[in-house]
Structure formats: structure tokens, C-alpha cells
Amino acid sequence: MTIKEIKGHIASPKGFIADATHAELKFQKLDLGVILSQVPAAVAGVFTTNKVAAAPVKLDQALVAGGVAQAVIVNSAIANAVTGDEGIRNAKTTQRLVAEKFDLNPNHVAVCSTGVIGKQLPMDKIALGISKLSAENSHPAGFAQAILTTDLVEKEVAYQVELGGETVTIAGVCKGSGMIHPNMATMLGFITTDAKIAQPLLQETLSEIIETTFNQITVDGDTSTNDTVLVLANGLAENQELLAGTADYQIFKTALTLVCQTLAKKIAADGEGATKLIEVTVAGAPDAVAARMIAKHIVGSSLVKTAIFGADPNWGRVISAIGQVSPFEVPDIELTIQGELVLLHATPVAFDQADLSEKLKEKVVVIEADLNQGEQSGTAWGCDLTYKYVEINALYHS
Amino acid sequence: MTIKEIKGHIASPKGFIADATHAELKFQKLDLGVILSQVPAAVAGVFTTNKVAAAPVKLDQALVAGGVAQAVIVNSAIANAVTGDEGIRNAKTTQRLVAEKFDLNPNHVAVCSTGVIGKQLPMDKIALGISKLSAENSHPAGFAQAILTTDLVEKEVAYQVELGGETVTIAGVCKGSGMIHPNMATMLGFITTDAKIAQPLLQETLSEIIETTFNQITVDGDTSTNDTVLVLANGLAENQELLAGTADYQIFKTALTLVCQTLAKKIAADGEGATKLIEVTVAGAPDAVAARMIAKHIVGSSLVKTAIFGADPNWGRVISAIGQVSPFEVPDIELTIQGELVLLHATPVAFDQADLSEKLKEKVVVIEADLNQGEQSGTAWGCDLTYKYVEINALYHS
């Protein structure tokens, strides 16, 4: 199986273009972006579980139920959450304006937002912004910038695979981290591919992949009102339609998993105030769901996050975090930090504190726990908790 | 019903004394304390739900099952958690040494610890410390100090009630500060009373009260390996034995609830790095358990905690936190911050930002959400998330 990472972007798959503009929603910054497919594409989506879902989330859920999308419009200034009926109307108007501009079915236009809660969209600015977007000059780097809020870096990735002699490209772009108007750390993820795959299978594949990728990251334990991941597959690679159970499907799924995992890790590494990416793997669990849950709890523990910030090999906080949420006893647990064994058979092992503390100053910190209770494992990603996180979220006023 | 707060301490109820000493476990600080009852007392307890429970927790669970205690010994330097069989042996030796010193049944001696995980108790120092403790000169203020770790202040409270013509005193002392998200939080709480009450009813009462008091505070979402609350009732007030369903029992229960709630709030207010106590009440819920769960989630949200630190009336973070965990829709939610209405019928209400920001600089911040979905309510307490929290937990090395 050859899966090749390429220097690509959201418009690398055949038939996709992306553009962005400054719609004056923010100060001198690209703040409105669009992804377009030449032809209607199968669309799959996963959304926030927050009961206070934003207006565009409701719209996109209906769109994904319809199974087809040809465009995604995104603003990164106003979340359009807790905005009542007016918010729904504004999201629908946005949809209609994009459809008119690019001659599309409005029901094929996905609308995404991130930004301040409880504020209505300034529709005159949105309309002007949409009028400035172009289907001619693809500007994917602009799109990657336009969706950012407090993110420090753009987050893009692209992979290519050969499926039945045809080259299929899968590309992704996302934002995470937090907001310029920090109400929560919203993540938006957009994935395009020219693969030919039926919508139900695409949705099934995404729903499965999400559990081990985007759902396994945490910055501050807060779930946004606007979280959205969309995958558009327009079939222009002209591969034979991917069918479940085939080798080609397996290759595609692996590549899509890599795209999601890479984007997820980029979000965690760029978490608000973060200085380090933390990767936690829990192995030896009776079931994978529990393994993932425990891993995510460890990486979300404020005490673990501050210890990593301080380069402190404080394994007591790790095992305490495990004990808090583990559904089963862990009498034979083994714990490794940056490759250094610190706990064996649930008993402390002597190690060089100063040496391990040095290793904890690296940009990526890996914690591995083997529960020795089964065969399943799970991984989660997060970041350290720093002065900067408190500053970003305390000093910026809503 | 007259329930009177008194200037008292853990040795105020008849027949109790307390003492403390410097056992050289920490640098120049009282670090070992004891509570003694003249006579064997009924004992009730609740303990951490952490699967990695410390050795003393296991010992005390057996003691509470036996129903009788006459002493509690506490050290605040070493948690005696993740210490294997040697940890259990050391906890038992501690029990035996206290029993020998004060001529008690060793099975009536509760042992509590808080501090570093994964380190064995230095039994020579523990033995020397115990030998210095006295049953003659009651020194309850020393005890209140001796159990502290990163706490900045002692936490004591005492109430008196009249039951059938007899004065009954209930007093409590606790430590908290970090790893506070009790199911139970490391929090240790000790309550003494001279009330006469059978052990099963005392346990039933404590188990019920704990749900709305100690289990409703959070500092950092982390549940410790050592959390313990013990109540000793020695019967020396010579009131008629309290029976469920009587008016006297109701008075006693209310007073015990006040003791637990007051101690819980003191822990939240003295959370690591805290500058403010946050009290969140969720009303209008279909059931009380959900109301308490939502209240606790709000008060535990890093984004809410940092906003309060920054005196930012960022109600979007509050409603987002509700939406994350609410088991039901909240289309008619009402939200009040420091008495100021900010959201009505799930729609933003205009308010004076600067004025509310000023009110958020007070030492106690009150957030009230009315879900308008039922008749039940619940309250939770926590504190803001500050630079100091990060400093305490990043710069202190294990």
C-alpha cells in the first residue's frame, strides 16, 4: 500500500478551488473563505455535540442529510451561535448569496462559522465579501489563513494514493486553538478528495475515523457550539467507485485517517498558549473505547498539563488521572514517559529525574501507559497548560 | 429550629481533643496531627472513587465498615499512594503506634495522608512524631495547620444546636486546595460531634449530604487518590439517640449539612492560585442530579474560570458549557451573572459591560442559570484559573 504525503493544499484534488477575502469582519485580515467543487460532490460531516449548536451547524446537518455539496463558505469572526431565528435566516441568506454568485443549488452550499457567540452576522459585509470571491484564481493558502482565529499557524495536509491505476488525492485544512473573541476553542476541518465514493460509505468512514482522530484531541476540555468537519468527494479522479471491504477502500480509509490525524495533531500542537504537543497512548485495555477515554482524560488533566509545562516528570499525576476514570482496576500498570520507564507492575521504578526533566523540554512529549488488562489501545493528543493560556483567555474581553 | 455558628474548632464537641507536631516530614512546619475521642465513637466515611486509592483509604474503608473510631492520625507530606504492600504495612504500623501511644484498639484508629504520590512513609519519623503527640494539651489550631499542603488558610467551622434540651456541637476541619474535584476531591475533611446517633444512620446522613456539598466543588477537575471525609460522633452530649424522621434528626442533619457546605466553600475559595470563589446555581432542571452536574461543569470550565479571573462577563462561555453536558435542550434558558440578567428566553439581553466587569472583580462571583425545564436545582462551587495556578503546578517539582 503506497500512501504518499505531498506538498499540497485543499485545492490539490482535481476539480476543487479555494479562495478568500477580507470582508471587514476583522481588522486587516482574511476572514471569509470558500471551497468550490466543479461538480456536485458526496458530502459527509460530523458536528459538535453541544446542545447549543450554532445556526450554521443546523444548516449543515440538513445538507449532509441531503448527501450533496458543491461549496463551503466560512467566516472566522462571528460564530452565529445563540442568535435565534435571525441567526438561521442569516445563515440561509449566506447560502443563497454563495449559490447566486457561483450558480449553484443553495442546498449544496455548506456554511461554517467561528468567532464570538451571541452576535448577529453583519449581512451587508458578508454580501460584499461573497461578491469579491472568485471561482477563477484558486487561492488555497488564503483560505487556510481566512479560517484561523487565535491559531498561530495554518494547518494543511495532503496525501496521494493509487487506486486501480488512478491517482487519488485527499487534502485537509483546519483551524483550532481558540478564538480571537474567545468563547471557546472551535475547530473547523475541511477535507476534499477527488475519490469516487458513495455518500453513505463516505459518511460511515468519516464517522469511524473521527473517533480516533479529531475526537481524541483536547485543548481545554471545552466543546464548542460550532465544531464541524466536512469531507467533500467529487469523484473526478475517475477511480472505480470505492466499495467497503475492498483493498482500494482500505487504502483510501487509511489515507483519510492520516489526513484527519495529522490535522488533529496540528490543532493540539497549536492549542492556545501551548509550548508542547502531548501524545498519550493507553495500551493493554479490555476495550478500545475505554483506552481512548483514559488517554483523553490524561491529556486533558490540568495537573498533567502544568507538570509538562514545567518539565516535571510527575508520574503520580498521570496515574491519578488514570485512576479517576478507569472503569477497571489497574494493579499491573506500566508507565513510560519520553521512553523512560517510571512505573512497572504498579510500582515506582528509579529513574534519573534531571535527565527525564531535560527530555520533557522537547516539543513533543510522549506518555505511554500499559494497563496489562487486555489487547486494545487508544491515543489522544493535547498540549501543555501555560501562563499564556490564562493570559489569552483572561485578558481578552468579550 | 436554632442552629448557631460558634467560634469553635474540631475539639469543641465534648470529649474530643486534637494535637499536632512537627515530625520532620516537611521543613519547619506542623505535619502530623491527631484527633482523639475520650470514648469510642460511631464513625461514618466517604472516600475517593479513584481506582488508584491510597493505602490509608483502604484501611479507613475497613474501619468505617466496622463502625467505630476513637482516633484519626493525619500526615500532610506523603500520600502513601501507589506504594504497594509496603504502603499498606506502613499504614497499619501507623495505626498500631497510635493505638499503643493512647491505649486504644488499633482497629479504632483511622489513618489519613495527603502529599506526594509513590513515596514510602519514613516510619522512623512517623514513630517519633507519634511519640510527641499528647492527649493532655488539646491543640486544635495546630491540627488545622498540620493537615494543610498548598492551602493558604486553615479551614474550620463549628455549629451548635439544641436537641431535646441538650446542647450538641458539630465541628469540622479540612484541607483542600489542589486536585480538587471530589468524588471525592485531595481533600481531607474531619468532622466531630458529641451527638448520639447510631452508625448506620450517621453513614446514611453523611452519604446523602456529601452529594450536595463536598462533591459539588472543583478546583481543577482532578480527583485525588486520598480523598476522605470522616465523621466521628461520640454521644457525649447525652441527647436522646437521634432517629430518622424526627425533628431533632432534621435539625442535626441541617447543621451537619451547614458544616460540610461551609468547609466545601472554604476549599473552593482557597483553590490553588484562586483570587475568587465562584458559586454557580442551575435551577429549573427536570432533576436535581442533572442540575448539580451542569453547575459543576460550568464551575469547572477552564474558559469560564479564566473569564472570571479576567473579570470578563463572557456569558457565551457559560451557555456553551451548559450545552456541552445538558442531557436536555435549553430553548428557554435565562442567565444571570452577579445579579445582572444577560440572557432571557435564550436570547441576549443588553447590559452594561463595564459595570458588570466591575462587579466581577468582587471576591465572590455568583452565576445563576434557570433552564425553565423543571423544578429542581443544584449548586456548585469553584474558583478562577490564574497565572498562580499554573505557577504552583508547573514550578513545583515532584
Which radius of gyration of chain A do the C-alpha atoms yield? 22 Å
What percent strand of chain A? 25-35%
Shape annotation of chain A: globular
From the N-terminal CA to the C-terminal CA of chain A, the straight-line distance is 50 Å
Largest sheet of chain A: 9 strands, mixed
What's the CATH architecture name of the largest domain in chain A? 4-Layer Sandwich
Which CATH C-level class of the largest domain in chain A is it? Alpha Beta
Describe this structure in words.
The structure is a homodimer of 398-residue chains. In chain A, the strands form two sheets. In chain A, strands 1, 2, 3, 4, 5, 6, 7, 8 and 9 form a nine-stranded mixed beta sheet that branches. Chain A has a six-stranded mixed beta sheet with strand order 13-12-11-14-10-15. Chain A is built from eleven helices and 15 strands. The first copy, chain A, has helices at residues 55-66, 84-102, 123-132, 140-146, 199-212, 247-269, 288-300, 302-309, 315-325, 353-359, 387-395, and strands at residues 3-5, 16-21, 32-47, 68-75, 109-113, 155-163, 166-175, 188-193, 228-233, 277-285, 334-337, 340-344, 347-348, 364-370, 376-383. In chain A, 33% of the residues lie in helices and 26% in strands. By secondary structure, the first copy, chain A, is α+β, with helices and mostly antiparallel strands. Chain A folds into two domains: 3-269, L-amino peptidase D-ALA esterase/amidase (4-Layer Sandwich), CATH 3.60.70.12; 277-395, Ubiquitin-like (UB roll), CATH 3.10.20.
